[in-house]
Amino acid sequence: MGARPVFVKQRRMQFGRVGSMVVETVSSEDLVYVEACLGRAPRGLQAVSARDAQGRAASIRVAPLVDGKPFPTLFWLVDPELRLRIDREEAGGTIKTLQQQVDNDEALRSSMAEDHRAHIALRASYIDTETRQALEASGRWRALSDRGIGGIADFGRIRCLHTWYAAHLVHPNTIGRLLDDRWALDLAPGQVLEG
Fold it and tell me: Strand, helix or coil at 40?
């Protein structure tokens, strides 16, 4: 499938302060690029969370509230090459293949559950006190506090490889590593890793 993209974590972000929270700004160039990648204006965009080797946005961080509703997907994959590659993996049955691998390996299941818990904690770190109190008062806090990567409630299930990989670009995780392993071996979508 060609050369594997090289990714670097966000490096040159501008910071400002609002209360005790650090606010990361998104450049106008970032916004134009992200809009072009998505084919629409991003909803809830707060930061570029990972960049490719050319400095372009690969993953963005999304607000925990979008249009006044809880939005549990913290990181959104925008890199067009990766999105297409993962589209092909999903269409080829890789979710099922990876799910079977996870179901048959207690260490992978445990690692996945830990990934979800770490993701919940990270998401919570971006939520200010006022927003959290409003969510708790409205009974909507659990939509964020009980759901892991991609908003999934069942920590043993793989639902969307895009959300796993967007998060992996920021903080390496189990499913992202399994995808990296598949790509390093140049496995076809859905192909079972032998041995």
Answer: coil
The CA–CA distances, whole Å, from 43 to 66, 93, 195 equal: 7, 29, 42
- The C-alpha atoms of residue 188 and residue 106 are separated, in whole angstroms, by 25
- Provide the token pair at 57: 């946005």
Per-residue pLDDT of the chain (195 residues; tens, 9 = 90+): 443 444 444 333 332 323 333 345 689 999 999 999 999 999 999 999 999 888 899 999 999 988 888 999 999 999 999 999 999 999 999 999 999 999 999 999 999 999 999 999 999 999 999 989 989 999 999 999 999 999 999 999 999 999 999 999 999 999 999 999 999 888 788 777 665
Q: 174: closest CA among 117, 123, 89, 122? A: 117
Locus of tokens 């501008």: 14
Contacts of 24 (CB under 8 A, 6+ apart): 10, 13, 14, 15, 46, 47, 48, 61
Integer distance in angstroms from the first to the last C-alpha of the chain?
Answer: 23
**Segments of 54-183 assigned E as strands:** 57-62, 65-66, 69-70, 75-77
Q: Which two tokens stand for residue 71?
A: 């939005």
